[in-house]
Design goal:
This protein is mainly beta. The strands form 3 sheets. A 7-stranded mixed sheet has the order 5-6-2-1-9-12-11.
Length: 181
């Protein structure tokens, strides 16, 4: 029998898709190395899988509840709507997918997203991609690392390397034109 080794996080991807209505859809994918097959074992039992996914969803919600998230100065609460488990071709390479939503009042002109959270050291590399609505453009961003802008400043992308101190604050200022509201 294989010795049980906790799944080790390898990499993460976060996608924020912002709608001009003020709905923010956040999708996060965590990739793991799971040499003991923990997630494969769980995935073969419906009850165990459901129980594990509920626990994972609850844990993610707890961490989100510890953040202070503001859209144009008004606090909003992110909610975990869905979590699933999958595999990247091998049972040793599971991933967890999260769908999270939050809403804020988006206005014509300048909008500000701010997130306050605990400072931490990144345990693994990750990339974050923000996709703003057509007609929007990022004016400025303070995400603690260098970032790139694409598609007429509508896409913002940044990478965080393992070992980087993530200081616990992000701010993105973006404009939304009247014609795309």
């Amino acid at each position: 029998m294989k010795e049980h080794v906790e799944p080790i996080p390898l990499y993460a991807q976060g996608f924020f898709i912002v709608d001009s209505s003020g709905l923010f859809n956040q999708m996060v994918i965590f990739d793991y190395w799971d040499p003991s097959g923990y997630y494969k074992k769980i995935s073969s039992d419906e009850d165990l899988l459901r129980e594990e996914l509920e626990k994972i969803k609850s844990n993610m919600q707890y961490f989100l509840d510890c953040e202070r998230l503001l859209i144009n100065g008004e606090e909003t609460r992110p909610l975990v709507k869905y979590v699933s488990l999958g595999f990247r071709g091998k049972e040793e390479l599971p991933y967890l997918f999260f769908h999270i939503i939050f809403k804020g009042e988006i206005v014509e002109g300048e909008n500000i997203y701010e997130d306050y959270f605990d400072e931490e050291v990144a345990e693994y590399d990750y990339v974050v991609t923000w996709i703003f609505p057509l007609g929007a453009r990022v004016v400025s961003a303070d995400v603690g690392v260098e970032y790139s802008l694409f598609e007429n400043r509508r896409l913002l992308v940044y990478h965080v390397k393992a070992g980087t101190t993530v200081r616990g604050y992000e701010k993105i200022v973006f404009e939304l034109s009247k014609s795309h509201r």
